[in-house]
Design goal:
The complex is a heterodimer of chains A (113) and B (411).
Chain A: E1 2-8, H1 13-22, E2 29-35, E3 42-46, E4 49-54, E5 56-65, H2 70-81, E6 89-95, H3 109-112
Antiparallel strand pairs in A: 1-5, 1-6, 2-5, 3-4
Helix pairs in contact in A: 1-2
Chain B: H1 6-31, H2 39-66, H3 98-116, H4 126-149, H5 154-158, H6 166-184, H7 200-219, H8 227-255, H9 260-277, H10 283-308, H11 316-334, H12 353-383, H13 390-395, H14 397-402
The chains are: A alpha+beta (113), B mainly alpha (411).
């Protein structure tokens, strides 16, 4: 089992969701986060004083999948999120030792889907 | 100065302040409906319209709109309020200082261009917006205002009735909204349904401020504190209530549940529709005008817009143009001289010709405003470019146009 964490541009969320649904990946968690990569965020001005390096809004997706769904999930995220410009985001894949469905107590692979 | 009536003057000045607050009210009404990355751009556009048009109006806008001229536009004799003093001008308002009439009209000149911005919300460059507003105020609002309201204006001479701005304000802004929505194109990602609005309570706050301010708009248009202002006040409130209720009932019937946005939209549509009629109809007429405007506007917003596929983002055309046109025509149905002896009777009171005159006034406004708005847009687009880049649109206008954001996620 893997946990796929993706950081994407907020305005690509709808496209990513659509690509995931098309690949039959329906269980996702979405949260709003702040961050910046190499482009160092944006400048803002408050009554004439400049504040540099403010953090940008990003969306974080968390998707827990069985091994055979790792590649389809990654492909779907890239399909939806890629614009080719700086700031498109990243995908992190980490091992997931346990997964428990709270309602039934099921563990492991069958608890994920 | 002995002709000045203190009660009338107090009412018109208070009404001017009431109409002014409608524009920030509109800012919240519209601001709540956009995505949160664009809310400041809406508030900012509304606010800067107040700044720009206030100056335009006292410098030359008032002169073009109400000054002596031909049947289409006034001249520049009243440049910088030259000759517009504190003596009443009996052509327009015989019992209040001329400048009181001027500043009351200024508030109408401000809110009209601000109404349009809902059509191209979330995608216009701020620099282009400022120039667009100045050009539109000068080449569309001022001539239409002159034609309909000024002495010698050709629509006024036809005998058309427009008590508080159904043609001048609402049809004018509403059709300009359609022209700009068509010219600028859809928002990126728009799929014939509304995009997620970020703050419904703002929308309700805005609608409430509009309803409150509209008493100045309509009852103030009597330009005197008396029976006609009272009648306009009563029918304004009645039509608005009827329209809010009927929009809710339509949603209940067709969508399963009535929504807050629906009642707020219906109320605004009711305010729009009663505007031209407010000084000419009785309370029964106002109930029909209110109940029916929601039917037409609901159809335009929920059926016509998705079918035709234009992205009038905040439904300025559906509410203001359709609602305004219905109000103007309804004036030709329900107007009665028992309310206003200076007006006319409508079709239901034995004068079918009035309905035809109203229709002509609507058509003149539709054609002139659409064509000139479209030309202004195309000229601006060819010179400085009107639409923001796709990246700026994605990040949002607050950050890209103003280097500011409305809300924080982390302190």
């Amino acid at each position: 089992m893997k946990l796929i964490i993706a950081i994407i541009q907020p305005h690509r969320l709808e496209e990513v969701k659509k690509a995931l649904y098309d690949a039959e990946i329906n269980l996702i968690t979405v949260s709003e986060v702040l961050g910046h990569g190499r482009q160092k965020g944006v400048d803002e001005f408050y009554r004439g004083s400049k504040e540099t390096g403010n953090l940008l809004r990003k969306i974080r997706l968390e998707i827990a999948v069985n091994e055979n769904f790792v590649e389809p999930t990654v492909k779907a995220i890239i399909k939806g999120a890629r614009t080719g410009k700086i700031g498109d985001g990243k995908i992190f894949i980490v091992d997931l030792p346990r997964c428990i469905r709270i309602r039934t107590g099921d563990e492991g692979s069958q608890a994920i889907g | 100065m002995d002709m000045i009536n203190t009660g009338d003057t107090a009412w018109v000045l208070a009404s001017s302040a009431l109409v002014l607050i409608m524009t920030p009210g509109l800012a919240f009404f519209y601001g709540g409906m956009v995505r949160r990355k664009n809310v400041l751009s809406i508030l900012m556009q509304c606010f800067i319209v107040i700044c720009l048009v206030s100056l335009q109006w006292v410098l030359f806008g008032y002169s073009l709109a109400f000054g002596p001229g031909n049947a289409f536009i006034g001249g520049l004799q009243w440049f910088a309020l030259k000759g517009v003093g504190f003596e009443p001008n009996p052509d327009y308002a015989a019992t209040i200082p001329h400048q009181a009439f001027m500043i009351f009209q200024a508030m109408f000149a401000i809110i009209t261009p601000a109404l349009i911005l809902g059509a191209f919300a979330e995608r216009m460059k701020f620099s282009a917006f400022c120039i667009f507003i100045l050009l539109w105020a000068t080449f569309v609002y001022d001539p239409i205002c002159h034609m309909v309201w000024a002495v010698g204006g050709f629509v006024r001479s036809m005998g058309a009735l427009d008590f508080a701005g159904g043609t001048v304000v609402h049809i004018n802004a509403g059709i300009a909204a359609l022209a700009t929505a068509l010219a600028i194109g859809k928002r990126t990602g728009y799929q014939n349904k509304s995009m997620p609005m970020h703050n419904m309570p703002f929308v309700v706050l805005g609608a409430a401020l509009l309803w409150f301010g509209w008493f100045g708009f309509n009852a103030g248009s009597a330009l005197a504190a008396g029976a006609l202002a009272t009648s306009a006040f009563v029918v304004t409130n009645t039509a608005t209530a009827a329209a809010g209720l009927s929009w809710a009932l339509l949603e209940w019937r067709f969508n399963g549940k009535p929504t807050m946005l629906g009642v707020a939209s219906g109320a605004v549509a009711g305010l729009v529709a009663i505007t031209p009629a407010s000084g000419f109809v009785d309370v029964i007429g106002s109930i029909f005008i209110g109940l029916l405007v929601s039917v037409f506007s609901y159809f335009a917003v929920a059926v016509l817009k998705p079918k035709l596929g234009y992205d009038d983002s905040l439904d300025v055309f559906g509410v203001h143009c359709i609602g305004g046109a219905w109000g103007a025509l309804a004036t030709g149905l329900w107007a009665t001289k028992t309310i206003n002896s200076a007006g006319a009777d409508g079709l239901l009171f034995g004068n079918p010709a009035q309905l035809f005159i109203q229709l002509k006034a609507v058509l003149v406004t539709l054609v002139y405003s659409f064509v000139v708005t479209f030309i202004i847009y195309k000229v601006l687009d060819a010179t400085i470019g009107v639409r923001v880049s796709q990246e700026d649109e994605a990040v949002g206008l607050d950050l890209t146009q103003h280097h500011e954001r409305a809300y924080t996620i982390l302190e």
